[in-house]
Amino acid sequence: MKLVVVVGLPGVGKSTVLSIARNKLVERGYNVKLVNFGDYMLSYLKDTGMIRTRDEIRKLPLAIQLETQRAVARKIRENLEGEKGDRVVGIVDTHAVVKTPTGFWPGLPMNVVLELRPNLIAVIEAKPEEIVARQQRDTSRYRADLSHVELVKEMLLINRYFSIASSVISGAAVMFVSNPEGLSERAAEELVAAIEAI
Q: Is the whole model's pTM more than 0.85, yes or no?
């Protein structure tokens, strides 16, 4: 099994790139399992009664975040290892950095990458102005605290730093994929090429 972690700031177009990349891999004969780390976190925390909505996750205390992240990473790895065949690709959609009221927290701390054991960490990026515009068009999520060009610029750098640190800890390759407006197909093809090469 190949396990790929794909990260990017909210509004970078990660979901679009992943949807296209998944379809391309399936067309090439891969058994692709695309899982959203946040969905697992939400389900786990809702079951415990600690939260009601996804946007509440980043407001929880760090100790609860870390404990939950580790449990979720273990569950994801176990589920993916249960898949049969030699052309299984597990893609974990998540964030490398999470902005909280107490600062920036790692979305891929050591306990998470050691549980997931990724082969590749792919960082999807776009211009800060494009990211802010995409965030403002997405009315399904509350992101007013993230929708400032200067903050997005800072978070893009932190996202890179945190991803590189996770790569060093896990031994995974790390790549940076540009996703300009209207070029998601190209970004997805770049990601697929890297997945096939690992």
A: yes
Q: What is the pLDDT of residue 65?
A: 85
Q: Which has the closest alpha carbon to 65: 126, 107, 127, 14?
A: 107
Q: Do residues 9 and 19 make contact, with C-beta atoms less than 8 angstroms apart?
A: no
Report pLDDT digits (tens) over 129-188: 999 988 888 666 545 556 689 999 999 999 999 999 999 999 999 999 999 999 999 999
The tokens of 109 are what?
Answer: 């701390």
The count of other CB atoms within 10 Å of the CB of residue 127 is: 17
Residue 47: is its pLDDT beyond 70?
yes
Question: So what's the pLDDT on residue 169?
Answer: 96
Residue 29: how many other CB atoms lie within 10 Å: 8
Give the N- to C-terminal CA distance of the chain in Å, as an integer: 11
Cβ proximity of 96 and 150 under 8 Å: no
Domains parsed from the chain with CATH numbers = 2-197 (3.40.50.300)
Strands 103-106 and 97-100: antiparallel
Mean pLDDT of the chain: 92
Please give the pLDDT value at position 99: 84
- Tokens in use for 141? 């999520």
Cβ atoms 98, 38 nearer than 8 A: no
Instruction: Please report, as a single letter, which amino acid is at residue 153.
Output: K
Cα 66 vs. chain centroid, distance in angstroms? 16
What is the rounded distance in angstroms from the CA atom of residue 28 to the CA atom of residue 36? 22
